[in-house]
Amino acid sequence: MVPIVEISELYFSYDNKNLAINNLNLTIYEKEWVCILGHNGSGKSTLAKLLIGLLEPLKGAIKVNGKILSQDTVYDIRRETGIVFQNPDNQFVGSTVADDIAFGMENQQISREEMKERIDKYIRKVRMEAYLQHEPHLLSGGQKQRVAIAGALAMNTKILIFDEATSMLDPQGREDINTLIQELKNDGDKTIISITHDINEAMLADRVIVMKDGTVMTAGSPAEILKDEALMNDCGLDVPLTVKLSQELKKYNIIDDIYVKQEDLVNSLWEYNLKK
Amino acid sequence: MLDNIKLGQYLHGDSWYYRLDPRGKLVMSTFFIVIIFMANNWITYLAATLFTLLIVLTSGVPLKYFYRSIKPIVVLIFFTFFLNLFFYRTGTPLPPLNIIINKIIVIIYGVFVALLITFRFTKVIDRYIIPKIFKITTLVFILINILLSYGLNYTEFSWSFHWIIYKNALINGGYIILRLILIISMSSLLTFTTKPTDLTLAIEHVLSPLKIFKFPVSELALMISISLRFIPTLLEETQKVLKAQTSRGADFTEGNIKDKVIQIISLLVPMFIISFKRAEELANAMEARGYIPGRKRTSLRELRWRFTDNIYVLSFILLTAFFIYFRS
Questions:
Q1: What angle is formed at CA A165 by the lines to CA A120 and CA A10, rounded to 5 degrees?
Q2: What is the mean pLDDT of chain B?
Q3: Do A54 and B288 touch (CB under 8 A)?
Q4: What is the distance between the alpha carbons of residues A97 and A134, in angstroms, rounded to a whole number?
């Protein structure tokens, strides 16, 4: 596994009193889907802004794709990092869908023909081809986020960051975006960092990193992390429904393990039915 | 509700005029305002009118839209016309239109006042309209009386005097009306048939020579296009704040001016804060996507100069030549 993002001893403060990021060490590997989980104010969104150089750390180093983030390298690093923010409205720059997807490419001075090709390719990827000439106020939140994803994809970045990209969407929009992220993961050429407090999103990731008070509390596979109720409650998060259900079922000796994935839980229930 | 918000005045449609290059349209519409002032006799005005009519009628934009854009300035047009009538004092005078006109005005005014009193008591008409009519008629009456008395021969009654109109004043007033209508038609046609985004792009291209003086043309164009893009978003937000404040007891319709100002502040303050927050997030998003102010960018949208654009420009040049030759 090749590390693509390396963060060591990172400190950051908004007001020079309280540390928003407090001695954070983190390594993210190429082509993995990492989910950074944390409650409000745990510093996860601050981390995203630090990663793309929108904020400057007090201390510590961020290394992206072998380059140390600094004044000189920040523009190069942004070329390798696409980010989708929380508010669908506040990141829609263009006056139509096509213009918005092109915005990042225009900044990279990509030729018009190339832009058209890429827009055509990625608009299909996010299934928004019917809306190419639509104006943003005619789109739903989920559709705007899909456009934002297409815009990030069109820049052909190695890393894709989702900074609470689904938190302002309705359940349907959320599901659409999560499915899309999963598809991107399956395509296997991007490192995906999704920052969220949505447990269901975390369940799909390769690795979950739990943040609390500006630092990494623990990291591990979703199966390990999400069933640890004490840990989750400590971070102000709730355990998934599947975990709750398996805990209850375990009390009645119906199943003998705690399952995070719905599929696993269903399978073990089938088995119980057979044993009976 | 938000579906019928229109950005600018663009009307969906397709015709040869829609397909023209927005740069040509923009420059020629401005050029038209300049050359129309060269027209000063009936033949040049006839040419200008026919020229505009030809373009307007073939542009595919329904005439009612032109009527709608002329309507708001009808008052201005007539005001200019009347001023011109009273102050333009050369050439042959027309026979004096004396007492009769003023008597007609007095009668009309009397009828208005009578109507006013009747409706005040019966409250048939909306109570806001009556004082409005009263104000306007009084104003018109005073204005006309002052203007009529301007350097005229008084007869024995203070409200009846001779009013001399000069022939040239009438003709010139007519030209002024025509000129304003033509200018507005051509300018409206530009905004009716050009998308705001294309217009912004055209402005960027037309102003691009200013780049030599380090004038941030591309940044300006991007600013315009972002402002346009955020109008519906902010309107939507305003609706939300309006509802939120109304639910907390704010009343934006009743009360005197002082109350209203206070209520509007309760709308403006949240709107300002929201706009600043949006602006910051948008700036972050733009920066994250590699935007660097002042750096050269490519553009997805392209403007194509076609053969018809040449003909369009040529027609304006011919019109100018016609003006130069036939003007007196």
A1: 115
A2: 81
A3: yes
A4: 6
Q: How many CB atoms within 10 Å of residue A89?
A: 19
Question: Percentage of chain B with pLDDT > 90?
Answer: 32
Give the helix/strand (H/E) hosting B310. Answer: helix B307-326
Q: Would you give the DSSP letter of residue B128?
A: T
- Across the interface, whether the CB atoms of A96 and B7 are under 8 A apart is answered no
Query: CA-CA distance, B27 to B9, in Å (whole number)?
Result: 18
For residue B161, the 8-state DSSP code is B
pLDDT digits (tens, 9 = 90+) for A93-140: 988 899 999 999 999 999 999 999 999 999 999 999 899 888 888 899
Per CATH, domain A3-226 is 3.30.1490.100:
no
Q: Looking up tokens 């050269």, which residue turns up?
A: B296
For CA atoms B58, B60, B63, B67, the dihedral sign is: negative
Cβ neighbour number for residue A166 with a 10 Å cutoff: 25
CA angle at B300 for the pair B297 and B305, rounded to the nearest 5°: 105
A272 vs A182, more confident: A182
- Of residues A207 and B132, which shows the higher confidence score? A207
Cα Dmax for chain B: 82
> Rg (Cα) of chain A, in Å, rounded?
20
Domain ranges for chain A, please list them. 3-226, 240-276
Q: How many CA atoms lie within 13 A of B176 on its CB side?
A: 19
The nearest CA of chain A is from the CA of B226 a distance in Å of 7
**C-alpha torsion sign, points B108, B113, B117, B123:** positive
Assess contact for B166 and B90: CB atoms under 8 A.
Answer: yes
User: B278 vs A15, B33, B273, B297, CA distance in Å?
Assistant: 21, 39, 9, 24
- Residue type, position B11, single letter: L
The per-residue pLDDT of chain A, averaged, comes to 88
Residue of B nearest to A149 (CA): B289
- What angle (nearest 5°) sits at the alpha carbon of residue A18, between those of residues A15 and A24? 110
- Taking only the tens place, the pLDDT of each residue in B103-126 is 666 677 677 677 766 666 555 555
Q: Does A261 touch chain B (CB under 8 A)?
A: no
- pLDDT at residue B51 in the model: 95
**Contacts B278 to A, Cβ<8 Å:** 89-90
The total number of residues written for chain B in this structure: 328
Give the residue among B1, B10, B2, B5 at the shortest CA–CA distance from B199: B10
Token pair of A121, please? 């390719």
Q: What is the pLDDT of residue A134?
A: 87
